[in-house]
Amino acid sequence: MIRDATATRARILEAATAEFAAHGLAGARVDRLAERAGANKERIYAYFGSKEGLFDATVEENIEHLLDAVPFTAEDLPTYAVSLFDFNVGHPEFTRLALWHTLERPGVMFRLPHAAESTGRKIVALAAAQQAGLVDDSVPPERLLELVLGLVHAGLLIPATTDVIDLDAQREALRLALQRIVDPKSHK
Asked: For residue range 36-93, what is the model confidence (pLDDT) as tens digits?
């Protein structure tokens, strides 16, 4: 029987997404993951080296999906933020996975190749948009990117009330807040 390494790797990463999103690195069990993926533990370690390596590869794979689904538009940060918000609403496992990774492997995510390249491109694009006068330059581009990401995730993670999140109201508040950050004169 010929093994399809690409398909096996994809099944492992899909199973790893579910396992790590639900349990984090410490709580994830390679046995459960292997069973869900229809692969053996030895194959998992052969592909990824360690549980930490699999966790990092899983985050990278999910970042790649995010980058494909939500293009960055420095000159229209409100639309980007709303698109990112909608992606997170539609893919809650991504948010959980990112949170687990940030908690259990602090500082590692932004050194992963896809994340580092994406962040670098976004900062350069924001700096260019600021230079062109399309985005207010009061906040340095790297801090502005942090604010955008923080606002997107805060609305999902820390609702202001104990009620169910009103996604439409949250989406509009996010759009409006970002519009005012990038163009402070827009609310006058």
From this structure: 999 989 989 999 999 999 999 999 999 989 988 999 999 999 999 999 999 999 999 9
Cα gap 180→158, rounded to integer Å: 21
Looking at residue 138, what DSSP letter applies? S
DSSP for 78-128 reads HHHHHHHHHHHHH-HHHHHHHHHHHHHSTTTGGGSHHHHHHHHHHHHHHHH
Q: Of 1.10.357.10, 2.170.120.30, 3.30.1640.10, 3.40.50.620, which CATH number belongs to 51-187?
A: 1.10.357.10
State how far the Cα of 100 lies from the Cα of 23, in Å rounded to an integer.
8
CB 58 within 8 A of CB 21: no
Residue in this structure with the two tokens 């402070």, named with its chain if needed: 184
Task: Spell out the domain ranges in the chain.
Answer: 51-187
**What's the pTM?**
0.85
Task: Answer for the pair 118, 63: CB distance below 8 angstroms, yes or no.
Answer: yes
The pLDDT-based confidence of 1 (bands split at 50, 70, 90) is very low
Q: Which of 94, 83, 98, 77 has the alpha carbon at shortest distance from 145?
A: 77
